[in-house]
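User: Quick sanity check before I run a bigger batch. Here is a single chain. Can you write out its predicted 3D structure?
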Amino acid sequence: MNHFYRQPIILFGIVVPTLLAAALVGGGAMVKSSMVKSFADKESNYRSYKQGSTAASEIEKQVISQRSHLQRWNSSLSQETASTVATNLREISDKLPGKEIQQTAFERPSGNGGFGSASAQNSSQIRIAFRGTFRTLQEAFLQLETRMPQLQLQEFRMDPNSTQPSLLNFQVTYTAWEN
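Assistant: Done. Predicted structure follows.
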């Protein structure tokens, strides 16, 4: 073989194919690492999507089971508060001993005071005064607040009755949250 052809044969027969093969292997490695990274990202996104959808379905189940309560709450909050409180108090008083409970005042102060003035939520105030025994009035307040959980106790006063020592004078002020 001629010495003249040795250099081009080495260049085009060994070096160039080796460089092309190295470039192909390097390009393949880059494409593979890009695909592996993309797969890992997609796998991570899928896992977080599955967690989110599982959590969302759990929350949806809870919301569906509470839907009847939501409708009851909305209807309760849409009623006029003062008349609802008066009606509930009348029903509660009818079930309790008449000698041990007597409503002495029922006011609805004008203006938005108390807790309601510090909130954007609509509210009103209701001031109620009673005369009665501690246990009976405690039961009455328990029943009222159970029937109307939108009432928030703002002020509570309890004084002895000067004319009848067995009775106490109570004055409560509620903030009633409304729609």
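The first strand starts at residue 101 and ends at 107.

User: Great, the batch can go ahead then.
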